[in-house]
Write the structure tokens for this entry.
Amino acid sequence: MASDDSAAISHMCANLTLADVDAEDVSVHLPNVQINTCEGEPAYYAVGRLVTNRSVKFLFFQDTMASVWQPAMGVTMRQLQPQRFLIRFYHETDLNRALADGPWTYEQNLLIMQKLCPEDDPETMPLNFAEFWIQIHSLPIGLRSAVVVSAIGGFLGSLVQTDEKNFDGSMRMYYRVRVSIDITKPLKKQMKLKKDNGTWVFVDFKYERLPTFCFICGVIGHGDRVCPKIAQGFDVKSEKPYGVWWLRAGSRRGVPTAGQKWVAPELDSARKDWRAPGMDDIEKPVANTSSRPNMDVNVSRELSVANMVSSDDLPDVVVADFKRKRGDVASTSETLNETAMECDMIGSKNGQKAGLASQARQEL
């Protein structure tokens, strides 16, 4: 216990020496100086770097990122260098959420964020690694396992986590891994896997929320128009080794939703209590309709035809006849034919409803 207390004290205190730069013999020794004290309200810091050579308007950057993160306890920033920022959160939950929900971009430029520890220097700490969700496509059926997916994540970089839905029983077109990658190196677009029979298969990668990167060298942070390889002799008219549709995962925006209520869940547990639209009504007890025939499609069509006719357009006699036929549930297509003939007669007399009969026939 004594050793633990001494270690804690030594961590909180330090021996400092203050010396003149030109005259080293002029110095002041301060023993047991307390460090890492936190005055005022608690604060949690992160350092951010925008991967771009362009200048950044700090106030616009601060306003944009604050509106995106929406921290419950607030956030403040300070610009340390043209593309480097000290970011202060006032609650640990806000900081952790901002770090976990990345990667973030500002004007399509990657923002690398890292939590600041007491011993770190925000001015000089390297910021070259960013976490991405990467999709693994074209994985052969015989190699689809959690072990293989994790191994591929380790091949891409430092594996952070795998998607918990990778093997939940649903039909997966790809598998997701969150990986910390070195953004100074080219993005990996493919890898080869050797099967037991000696054949090689190719596995493709797609990056979610991928920012600006070069189609020539595959490095994040610049476009192909300013790639250093152009000065080294790369022919800009030739096919580029990277493409926007090869590595960039498709956005979820614009996904059709009109028919989603009829799409059944793939998981058995979720599908157990699922019902298609209208199925709940079918299972309910049906009222006794033995004294009245069942309505068919022609009856509903007749009602729609009757609803098209307004009392302002037809004589009272015809309107009353429509109401009588609308209440007659047993009427069928013959009633519709009679209705169409009556509309023809009325239209031929006054010349104003000549198109009403054709509408009625289209409903047949």
